[in-house]
Amino acid sequence: MQSQALVNKILLDVGDTKLNNLISFLAGVTLLALLAQIAIPLPWTPVPVTGQTFGVTLIALLWGKKRAFAIVSAYLIVGVVGLPVFAASTMGVATSGYLVGMLFSSIVVGHFSDLGWSSSFKKAWFAGFLGSCVTFAFGLTVLSFFVPFEALLISGLLPFLPGDLVKTVTAAFIANKSNKFMNS
User: Fold this and answer.
1) Which helix (H) or strand (E) holds 39?
2) Which residues contact 102 (CB under 8 A, 6 or more apart)?
3) β-sheet bridge partners, residue 49
4) What angle do CA 153, 147, 105 make, to 5 degrees?
5) What is the structure's pLDDT at 21?
6) How far apart are the first and last CA of the chain?
7) pLDDT band for position 88 (50/70/90)?
8) What predicted TM-score, i.e. pTM, was given to this entire model?
9) How many CB atoms lie within 10 A of CB 121?
C-alpha cells in the first residue's frame, strides 16, 4: 500500500509497522479533533462550516479504507463519550447525521484510495466528491427531522458546497502530491 509507505517515510522510518500504525492512528484522530475546532457558525442553520470533512477525505485518500475507518470510528467514540472533539453546534443531534456520514465517507473514499485513485488528482478529487455526497446524504436525512423541508437545502447543503469544493480539491492535491513523492 502506497499510503503505508508514505507514513513510514514521513512519520517514522524504523520498520515497526505496529508503531507506525499507532502513530498514524493517533495523528489522524488528533487531526480530526483539531480540524473540528475550525468551525464557522451560520446564523440560519444549526450546521457549522468545519474542517472535519477535509480531514476525513485527506485521511482516507492517504491511508485507505481500513485505517480511515478506524480513525473516524475512534474520533466519533471519543466525542460520544464526552471529550470536546466535535465542532460547536447549536443542535448536536440535528448535526449527528453529518458525523455518521463522515464514517461512511471514510469507507467510500478509502476504498478508492486502496484502488490507487490517489495517484491521479482527478480520481482523488472524484473519490472525495463521492465521499462528500455520502456525508451530505446522511446529514440531510437526519437534519430533515429538525428543519422544515422547504429550508433543508439552504440549511444543510447549498451554503457548504463552495467550501466543500475547496476541501476536496485541497485533499486531492495533497494526496496526489504525496503519492508522487512516494513514487519518486
Assistant:
1) strand 39-40
2) 52, 53, 56, 72, 135
3) 40
4) 55
5) 84
6) 15
7) confident
8) 0.88
9) 17
